[in-house]
Specification:
The protein is an alpha+beta fold. Helix content is 50%, strand content 13%. The strands form 3 sheets. A 5-stranded mixed beta sheet has the order 2-4-7-6-5, with helices on both faces. Strands 8-9-10 form a 3-stranded antiparallel beta sheet. A two-stranded antiparallel ribbon has the order 1-3. A hairpin with a 2-residue loop joins β8 (291-294) and β9. α1 runs parallel beside α5 (96-104) and α6 crosses α7 (123-131). The longest helix is centred in the N-terminal third of the chain and has 20 residues, at 23-42. The protein is globular and about 60 Å long. The model is unreliable at 1-21 (pLDDT under 50).
């Protein structure tokens, strides 16, 4: 179920954005919380409590969860069933238990899908609204205690659910490049995600910028003055969320602007380029070698020492993987091309 990208930052306006929140952990927590809500609707209080508590603890877990076994060993309340669900999600991106419950609870599923597709309403909030009796967008607009950001999400909902054609993404990229070049010709930035992977369309705009300090405020101000930012949704010290629109002849789209320190640029670029399955596979490979890979860097697990990497190619080389271009990091990737010993010797 689509959940308006719940892992990137807190959706409740007024709260400080949670820097570096793990999208994988949050996505997993959302799935388990949804299972819990279905059990609660069925009156299965024991299972509902187990899944809801596991979801809360997984969302707060300080490291990216790599297996059901890891979760069971380190997170209280994760038993055999939830551990198996975690493994299934990490392997396939879905949980059969959830699919079965969705079929049994179609009206709830449809309502939660409608609500969670709105910016500012993640799965937890959608469940809360459903349990309070709201069933339609009109219910939310006229009766629910919505934040200003959530109201913006409803106003632009018909725009934000649409994919962005690559031709329009090219126009957006060119316009952002013009604006930021005038701001600072030496500024390093890239639109990541599916656009960098060369896909035919994108769900939103993920703009990565190398830097820190006040540069984010300067970037937002420059884009705002240009007229292409039409709404602010949330802002933290290194991340901004808003709505961008090239003009009246174009749809409005979600834009996330994320500052990445120079020392984390290569790993951050890899992480936010994706795909999700590629990230799962390459992090798994790192663990096999006694390393930990995330958006902040590449580290030795035992010593926590950060291994310097300047480019994505450095990461592939250290992990013994043949380089995959962004276009090759597809969502249906099932394995990584490991470099053989003979190939290493010849190189």
């Amino acid at each position: 179920m689509k959940s308006s990208k719940p892992g990137k930052m807190s959706r409740e306006e007024g709260k400080e954005l949670r820097e570096g929140e793990s999208s994988l952990n949050q996505d997993l927590a959302d799935q388990l919380a949804l299972i819990g809500s279905y059990y609660e609707a069925e009156g299965n209080i024991y299972r509902a409590r187990a899944y809801n508590e596991a979801a809360e603890r997984i969302a707060k877990y300080p490291r990216v969860i790599t297996s059901g076994t890891e979760a069971r060993m380190n997170i209280r309340g994760v038993g055999a069933s939830i551990s198996a669900d975690i493994d299934e999600y990490l392997l396939t991106g879905s949980i059969r238990r959830l699919r079965d419950l969705e079929e049994k609870n179609k009206e709830r599923f449809d309502t939660l899908q409608l609500f969670s597709g709105i910016f500012g309403i993640d799965m937890k909030i959608a469940n809360k609204f459903y349990n309070e009796g709201y069933r339609t967008l009109e219910d939310l607009w006229f009766k629910a205690p919505l934040t200003p950001a959530q109201k913006i999400g409803i106003l632009y909902r018909k725009h934000l659910v649409l994919r962005i054609p690559r031709e329009e993404m090219d126009r957006i990229n060119n316009r952002i490049t013009e604006i930021l070049f005038q701001l600072d010709p030496n500024l390093k930035f890239v639109i990541a995600g599916s656009y960098r992977r060369g896909e035919a369309s994108s769900g939103d705009i993920d703009l990565l910028v190398q830097g820190n300090g006040h540069i984010l405020e300067e970037i937002v101000e420059a884009l705002d003055k240009s007229g292409i930012l039409v709404a602010k949704l949330a802002k933290g010290s290194s991340q901004y969320m808003g709505i961008l629109r090239l003009g009246p002849d174009f749809n409005a789209h979600r834009i996330d602007i994320l500052l990445i320190p120079k020392e984390s640029w290569a790993t951050g670029l890899m992480h936010f380029t994706g795909s999700k399955m590629f990230n799962i596979l390459i992090r798994r490979r790192a663990r096999e070698l006694g390393l930990k890979l995330n958006q902040y860097g590449l580290f030795e697990i035992d010593t926590h020492r950060q291994i310097p990497v300047k480019t994505e190619e450095d990461i592939f080389r250290i992990l013994g993987i043949k380089y995959l271009s962004p276009e090759e990091r597809t969502p249906n990737l099932s394995s990584l091309p490991i470099v053989s010993e003979s190939e290493e010797t010849s190189n």
